[in-house]
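Why should sequence recovery work at all? Because a backbone constrains its sequence more than one might expect. Tight turns favour small or flexible residues, buried strands favour hydrophobic ones, and helices have their own preferences. The token representation captures these environments compactly. In the example below, the structure is given first.
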């Protein structure tokens, strides 16, 4: 999960800088590097434990509020801001749901507080999966670059269409934009006109 954060944060900043609002939702088709995409897809198929199930199990081990959860190397890594005031990293086997490690973490001093996010990680994952059918492989709480530094959930979905999609979900409303819903299907005519022949652009744009 942590290795994905920089890439997702860069995507979020680019979308918002391009005219989106802090409360808007955005989606991007992840073209990736081919082999990486196939590996992510295989990981998502192999995971018998969903992100929501992983979150529930992790909270049983370290009560608090989840600030992020991600699928990495056949394991779910769940970050929790504990009720004890400490940060906890809980790792679970993605096939069995068994907790493999629970550690205290120094955390990120600049990370936003989950107490300011009415929408939980599990709810954000549900909203993302409703927008793009598939398997949610990551949700991460962050601040959007823009007026007010609004809190957002950055989510990744391995879609049923075989592609990885990146979405940004507002942490106060969990609504999903029309653009996000379009990600589950083909490009619109407008997108095709803008980029030219849509059949040749799977690897040309983010």
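From this structural description, the recovered sequence reads:
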């Amino acid at each position: 999960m942590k290795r994905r954060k920089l890439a997702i944060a860069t995507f979020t900043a680019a979308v918002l800088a391009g005219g989106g609002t802090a409360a808007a939702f955005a989606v991007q088709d992840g073209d990736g590097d081919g082999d990486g995409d196939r590996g992510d897809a295989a990981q998502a198929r192999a995971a018998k434990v969903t992100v929501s199930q992983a979150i529930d199990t992790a909270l049983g081990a370290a009560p608090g509020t989840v600030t992020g959860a991600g699928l990495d190397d056949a394991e779910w890594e769940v970050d929790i801001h504990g009720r004890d005031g400490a940060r906890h990293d809980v790792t679970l086997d993605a096939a069995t749901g068994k907790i493999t490690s629970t550690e205290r973490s120094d955390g990120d001093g600049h990370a936003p507080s989950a107490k300011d996010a009415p929408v939980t990680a599990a709810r954000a994952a549900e909203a993302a999966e409703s927008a793009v059918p598939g398997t949610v492989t990551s949700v991460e709480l962050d601040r959007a670059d823009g007026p007010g530094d609004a809190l957002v959930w950055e989510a990744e979905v391995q879609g049923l269409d075989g592609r990885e999609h990146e979405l940004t979900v507002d942490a106060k409303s969990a609504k999903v934009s029309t653009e996000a819903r379009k990600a589950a299907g083909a490009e619109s005519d407008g997108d095709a006109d803008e980029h030219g022949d849509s059949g040749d652009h799977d690897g040309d744009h983010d």
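A few observations help interpret the result. The mean pLDDT is 75.
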